[in-house]
Write a structure and sequence with these properties.
Structural class: alpha+beta
Number of strands: 6
Helix content: 25-40%
Number of domains: 1
Largest sheet: 4 strands, antiparallel
Order of helices and strands: EEEEEEH
Number of helices: 1
Bound molecules: zinc ion
Radius of gyration: 24 Å
C-alpha cells in the first residue's frame, strides 16, 4: 500500500486586495486604477454611468473608460431640461 501524503500547499489562497475599492480603467487625471463606487451623486445615481471616485486623487470618472463623465452629465441635464420645458410648453398650450 502506497500512502500518498497529501500536504496541500496553502500558498494558493486568494490574493487579498491591498487597496480597497474596485479595479477601474486608468483615471483620466492621475492614471490610478482603483476607485470606489460613487453611489448617488448630485445629478443622479452614479451607477448609471459606471461612475467611481478615484482613490488616488479623488476625481469622479467612468470606471470603464477612465474618462470624465462631465460631458454626459451636462448632456443629461440638457435632456432633462428640454423634456421638462416641452412638458411645460405642452401644458401651457393644451390646458
Ligand atoms: Zn485619479
Amino acid at each position: 500500500m502506497t500512502e500518498t501524503s497529501n500536504a496541500a500547499p496553502a500558498a494558493a489562497a486568494t490574493a487579498p486586495q491591498a487597496t480597497s475599492g474596485v479595479q477601474t480603467a486608468p483615471c483620466y487625471a492621475c492614471g490610478g486604477t482603483h476607485g470606489e463606487p460613487a453611489g448617488y451623486r448630485w445629478w443622479g445615481p452614479g451607477s448609471l454611468m459606471s461612475e467611481v471616485r478615484c482613490l488616488d486623487c479623488g476625481v469622479y470618472f467612468n470606471s470603464k473608460s477612465g474618462e470624465s463623465n462631465g460631458p454626459w452629465i451636462l448632456f443629461w441635464h440638457m435632456f432633462v431640461f428640454l423634456v421638462g420645458a416641452s412638458g411645460v410648453a405642452a401644458w401651457l398650450l393644451l390646458r
